[in-house]
Specification:
Helix content of chain A: 25-40%
Oligomer: homotetramer
Number of strands of chain A: 17
Number of helices of chain A: 12
Largest sheet of chain A: 9 strands, mixed
Radius of gyration of chain A: 20 Å
Shape of chain A: globular
Strand order of the largest sheet of chain A: 1-17-15-9-11-13-14-5-16
Strand content of chain A: 15-25%
Distance between the termini of chain A: 28 Å
Order of helices and strands of chain A: HHHHHEEEEEEHEEEHEHEHEHEHEHEEE
Amino acid sequence: MLEKSIPAILRRYAGAAVCAALLHVIGWAPQHAAAQGWMPPPPDQRCPSPWGAGDERGAANRQTPQAVLNAVRLIREGKVYELGKLLDASMPRSPGRSFALELKRTNGPNGRNQQRGNEETVYTELGQMGTQFDGLAHQGLGAHLYNCIENDKVATRTGFTKLGVEKVGALFTRGVMLDIAQLKGVEMLPDAYEITVADLEQAMRRQDVDFGAGDAVLVRTGWGRLYAVDNARFMKGEPGIGVAAAEFLARRNVMMVGSDNWAVEVRPNPDPELVLPVHGFLLTVNGIFLVENLDLEGLSRDRVNEFAFIVEPLKLKGGTGSSVAPIAVR
Amino acid sequence: MLEKSIPAILRRYAGAAVCAALLHVIGWAPQHAAAQGWMPPPPDQRCPSPWGAGDERGAANRQTPQAVLNAVRLIREGKVYELGKLLDASMPRSPGRSFALELKRTNGPNGRNQQRGNEETVYTELGQMGTQFDGLAHQGLGAHLYNCIENDKVATRTGFTKLGVEKVGALFTRGVMLDIAQLKGVEMLPDAYEITVADLEQAMRRQDVDFGAGDAVLVRTGWGRLYAVDNARFMKGEPGIGVAAAEFLARRNVMMVGSDNWAVEVRPNPDPELVLPVHGFLLTVNGIFLVENLDLEGLSRDRVNEFAFIVEPLKLKGGTGSSVAPIAVR
Amino acid sequence: MLEKSIPAILRRYAGAAVCAALLHVIGWAPQHAAAQGWMPPPPDQRCPSPWGAGDERGAANRQTPQAVLNAVRLIREGKVYELGKLLDASMPRSPGRSFALELKRTNGPNGRNQQRGNEETVYTELGQMGTQFDGLAHQGLGAHLYNCIENDKVATRTGFTKLGVEKVGALFTRGVMLDIAQLKGVEMLPDAYEITVADLEQAMRRQDVDFGAGDAVLVRTGWGRLYAVDNARFMKGEPGIGVAAAEFLARRNVMMVGSDNWAVEVRPNPDPELVLPVHGFLLTVNGIFLVENLDLEGLSRDRVNEFAFIVEPLKLKGGTGSSVAPIAVR
Amino acid sequence: MLEKSIPAILRRYAGAAVCAALLHVIGWAPQHAAAQGWMPPPPDQRCPSPWGAGDERGAANRQTPQAVLNAVRLIREGKVYELGKLLDASMPRSPGRSFALELKRTNGPNGRNQQRGNEETVYTELGQMGTQFDGLAHQGLGAHLYNCIENDKVATRTGFTKLGVEKVGALFTRGVMLDIAQLKGVEMLPDAYEITVADLEQAMRRQDVDFGAGDAVLVRTGWGRLYAVDNARFMKGEPGIGVAAAEFLARRNVMMVGSDNWAVEVRPNPDPELVLPVHGFLLTVNGIFLVENLDLEGLSRDRVNEFAFIVEPLKLKGGTGSSVAPIAVR
């Protein structure tokens, strides 16, 4: 299994961003200066992926037996935290997305045993609805998806011929929850607050937790309290990580970044010319998955810092992601 | 946590079935005699559920921290087996069920970072499609669902107000695979072969594996090789457990029964007047879940007898079940 | 072609309603007295239908060649009025109804001619969305649909085995528009205003128009101005005909009643114990169709009183109705 | 209202095709020679449309009051022929198209009147399913739709911002049915038979019928007998008009061309390098609509040559077409 070499990592931080990134490491850099003028590295600097030109799995390559064993070691009580929200019509969603669950008429009774059957149709953006796992076909930068695969060459009417979420498989790895709302002593971070590298580092120190290659990092903003309660505000914007924090996480080669907001990242981005830059940076540049709309309240309440994190995306062939119901187990 | 008392268990085996059941225990009973005239126990004998009259979770009540710890102990290598099949248009399905995944037109490019986004709509019987987890609202006997909840009182156009699959939560427990096809030395069991109690017991002896309360038992028939290959034959009938084997499993208080066929149970039932009797017996009478269309080939190839079994049903509010992508981990 | 005999018509007006109806004819009856205690006639008084016990077409039986010729005579200018509203996401709709139109990715280019193709998926309550034609399976009274056909015997998961909208066929008949908003000198009638028999009669006199067997009567309330403009108010209630006016129309054996509101009838009904009584009275008791959410502004502007009315319901097998785009031609 | 000038018409027949077209007029041209090497005229020769650079309605501009009056004159008996097929799961369709109609659970009973309500969800390619009307956004040639509107500039996820079928309106015009199967004395034309100009002309003479600007021409192949009976054969190929016959029809400035097959045109095209060339030629080059899967059996049985043809496409905003239930009236 290949891991990113240092030069490969550096190639990811083009131009001014390289300096900023290095400054971050030594704890100096003002976030916003770093963000100004930020651009994702161009194709020749970000491709091929460290897992090879043909790779379609990105950071799922970090899902090794050792990752499972690292996670299993954290299961001491057998306590399961459900991190998935309900899938129903109360979900917040972007304009133009649907969710309809229609219960069919009950079948039967059939046979001597008077068997009756129920089932339901669901119409929805199944890859991108509710608590969701973002796969590598979900986002592109210009003409390209992850590993510089050309979007229009692999997108068909019925899904992607490459990078479909069915390539990922279940992810079972060590999870770490960084509770930024708690760090700041608030119920939820302010609208459009950008979580900084310093915030992450302080939370790590305060919670006495670290993370590294192959881990899942879940960032708690408190914003999830608005989910299905005040959907208009929930969707209008959100506190979340910015580009600098995403770079910080990517440098540590995590497998996934999750949050209790809609997009993991701050919206709108402080740089008004960037649209969802963390999506492109994590998914497209680094092959790192996003997990959105997580319910992190239980973990926060119990001060759970690390745990086994298990997510089983549906094997939607050619899909861009999957609604999921992940768990944390300790 | 309540467990079934012996009288409660016995109440489940009405009339002639009680004798047959007892005979099974001592290894005498001819299966087909047992099945003749079989009827599920009537409401007054099967309700309330051992978990109380208000219970909506059935055997998910057996999902305890201890069940997790029992499962975790089996993870020694960190090896993950994907038991879910692909969700795509090639899936076998009953007439009248649909699966359509439509990739939307790519959004963007937006912003200086030229962000582009992809997503898909899915229209399908999401609770009952592909590798699937059957919840307690999926099946009824006459007017009633599990725990004698009246179907028509809880069924609404947009789902069930009770017994919805969102009540179950993730299941993480010890799994056992009984490889009946291998026991018989065949690639797949014959069409409509009824797996007997004796078959299960022989497989247990041969594989040197046992199971008990809260476990998931996966029964391999080999039938899954036809899935998406010869759908007409796959759907027409299938080898699987019959009523007697289901009773044998229910007496041991398992949490789930899974298989690599479409319905877990033999189809058509040898008793031509019974329609899907194992469904009603396990789900409605006993609150035991079914997991269908599993891919058990990897476990069979590697002779994996026991493992941690983890399944995360989508939290479809009011849903009858969920497409899933479960894993076995050892 | 059978027409209703007088006794058959009288049978439709049970108990107190008969007196009230007669009083209406001579212009005396206070509407609300009439409405108090109103009940639809019971099955034995309303069935069989005047078109026989096996009839599934109701007032579509009034669609005769003569009806076409009567309508054609009114076409003198060849001017077409489009009475259908746009089908798009801006449509007002009941909670739990959906409308999603997703354009597929463009196919091709194929061949030397560089052919490319486009198409769209639509998910919606197609029988009951936008400008819509209500068929006979749409409404029931207790256990029964039109002609006392038992709802649960003909309702299947994929449609009705009887009374489906595909039985109706295209309707091409004389149409009359009664402009009640104009009569009252208002842009739109007040919320929940019940249009009375006297209102209809005054409009008929003022517009110098009459109608009879097989005609389509379109009642303009002005309420349609709120459609897709203030959907919350549009759906909350509406001015429209009440039971007495519906009786008046049914006695004249019309084929359809249409309006520029959501339900043709006043909502909520002044009698708080009645739910959509005009629906049941016209569709279920009399087999008379409803056409809702019509755009009657052009006809009103041009003071068009009578015209050829042509509506082509989609032949949704077993459907309850159809989105339509009817026209008036003069 | 603009009509095509002669030069505008000629511009449509580029290169070798011009000669061939002229030869056709005088009845000499061998069809296949004409078809060899055929190409649709390039953008600069086909645009702007005769109705101006901004036009989005194509041949619907020929829908004038006079067209209605011409049609009305043909209605002498008031007899209505239903030309639409049933919309249900038995419909033939291309791979990847869906049709699901799900009847909801019956609502109610509500109120003293025990009101109950029914409705259904439908999921389908509504613009392109069953008897269907093809709008101008349905087909493109290279980058362009009708009137050289750039496909990718007007295609959004939720429909076309230009050329949507809602721009067309109802069409009510003179219709002519050319019965080629009857002309040839067969129940249906052979698979992949190309209907020639000579065939059309012979049918016109034999049926003593002519047609011109603004008319709808319906070409009967007999192929419709396979519809919902032998869908595999129905879809595999079909007899229909070829490019030369389409040119013949376009020169006469018809409004629509319909047929009882799936694509109006012969499939596969005799020139193996052309894909659906008649679609592109009629829709994209000439703005002439197609109406497919018509039921022409009644008209054929009764030897009805001309009639009023009325089709009311649903007003799907931004849609590529519409399922329809057109009628012929005489």
